[in-house]
């Protein structure tokens, strides 16, 4: 069921699903009888997907792959995908911000999806109604895939660049890095103390390694000091002990200094201040812990200690039938190493789509997502692989082919959207 005002309707670009090839009348009659016997979902069924990132788009693909013919509305303020995993290469000129912004109009058309240009402002989950700045939307199923946000409680955090907030921060890093002739670059990360798993630290290791490689290529390394900081004594613990040992050894090999195990106090324009001392810096990159989107405060959704939507292993929101969550906006059961990354968001979205399809087809949903961590930490000329699933924790040392594997995966993944 879709509820739109006239003003909202003007802002919606509705694209009809691809029209089937005309069939003989006898075939049409057989199909009509078959669909009525099966009791499949009708076009009146409405699915609202909040967001236009990895989880949201994977859900669209999986729903259509499973022959779900319901109306699908994607609610997001923009109609392009920002491929952030490759933003680490912007300072090196391997990628540009424009090249990592992929228009989604053709993708939406191919999958028969309506895009509503709007931002979510709240939700009445009990009534399955989403509040947006373009008005309320009611649906039979709602998938929350808006992503999370980074905590900004640390005093002076605006003096640092938060790389994973978007492509613009990566472009700002590139400009500041290019203008730096000498000085110190401080690169750090922290977590959400209320939910330690709400952290995205991998890109910070990559920035440290990539900027070191780039400075050496440019003959500037002796003039620029690199310091990695974190309140954790062993940052990256979710990757496994062997991986952390490898990261710290790589820091030492490259001459990247570390400032670890000290609680952060504030970030000044020219320094990072911790309880264990200060780091004078000309450029500060810092990735704080994560929490849920701000609009959750205007909802009746159950929240985790860290401020994310509480979900079960089937991606159902507890106590709210027909409401689902995938990706960084959710808090899920699983091992303590379960990551906040695009790959895990895709797995959760695929499970949510399978379970929505099951309900629409009159079956009991039973698809649990797989907790899985896949990370290639790029160094610009090589990479280190970490893989975790169940009790398996595979760590490969720095290898040149892994850099090219990461680039090949990017091309493969984005084919669906180009």
TrEMBL record:
It holds the Pfam family Pyr_redox_2. GO terms for molecular function: oxidoreductase activity. InterPro entries: FAD/NAD-bd_sf (IPR036188), FAD/NAD-binding_dom (IPR023753), SQRD (IPR052541). Residues 46-345 form the FAD/NAD(P)-binding domain. It comes from the Bacteria. PANTHER family: FAD-DEPENDENT PYRIDINE NUCLEOTIDE-DISULPHIDE OXIDOREDUCTASE, PTHR43755. This is FAD-dependent pyridine nucleotide-disulphide oxidoreductase. It comes from Rhodobacter ferrooxidans.
């Amino acid at each position: 069921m879709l509820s739109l005002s006239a003003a909202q309707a003007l802002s919606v670009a509705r694209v009809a699903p691809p029209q089937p090839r005309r069939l003989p009348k006898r075939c049409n009659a057989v199909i009509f009888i078959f669909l009525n016997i099966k009791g499949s979902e009708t076009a009146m069924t409405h699915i609202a997907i909040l967001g236009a990132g990895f989880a949201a788009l994977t859900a669209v693909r999986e729903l259509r792959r499973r022959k779900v013919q319901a109306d699908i509305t994607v609610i997001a303020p923009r109609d392009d995908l920002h491929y952030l995993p490759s933003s680490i290469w912007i300072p090196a000129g391997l990628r540009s911000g424009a090249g990592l912004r992929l228009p989604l109009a053709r993708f939406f058309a191919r999958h028969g999806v309506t895009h509503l240009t709007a931002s979510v402002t709240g939700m009445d989950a009990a009534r399955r109604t989403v509040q947006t700045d373009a008005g309320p939307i009611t649906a039979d199923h709602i998938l929350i895939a808006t992503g999370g946000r980074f905590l900004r409680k640390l005093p002076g955090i605006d003096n640092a660049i938060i790389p994973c907030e978007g492509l613009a921060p990566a472009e700002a890093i590139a400009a500041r890095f290019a203008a730096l002739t000498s000085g110190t670059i401080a690169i750090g990360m922290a977590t959400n103390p209320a939910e330690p798993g709400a952290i995205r630290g991998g890109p910070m290791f990559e920035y440290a390694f990539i900027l070191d490689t780039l400075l050496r290529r440019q003959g500037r390394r002796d003039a620029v000091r690199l310091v990695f900081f974190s309140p954790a004594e062993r940052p990256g613990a979710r990757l496994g002990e062997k991986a952390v040992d490898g990261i710290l050894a790589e820091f030492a090999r490259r001459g990247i200094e570390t400032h670890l195990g000290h609680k952060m106090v504030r970030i000044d324009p020219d320094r990072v201040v911790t309880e264990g001392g200060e780091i004078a810096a000309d450029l500060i990159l810092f990735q704080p812990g994560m929490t849920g989107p701000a609009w959750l405060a205007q909802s009746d959704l159950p929240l985790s200690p860290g401020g994310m939507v509480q979900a079960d292993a089937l991606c159902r929101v507890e106590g709210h039938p027909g409401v689902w969550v995938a990706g960084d906006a959710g808090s899920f059961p699983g091992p303590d190493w379960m990551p906040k990354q695009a790959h895990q968001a895709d797995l959760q979205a695929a499970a949510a789509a399978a379970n929505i399809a099951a309900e629409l087809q009159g079956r009991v949903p039973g698809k649990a997502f797989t907790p899985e961590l896949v990370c290639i930490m790029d160094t610009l000329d090589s990479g280190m692989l970490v893989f975790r699933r169940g009790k398996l924790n595979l760590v490969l040392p720095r290898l040149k082919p892994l850099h090219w594997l990461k680039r090949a995966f990017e091309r493969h993944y984005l084919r669906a959207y180009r």
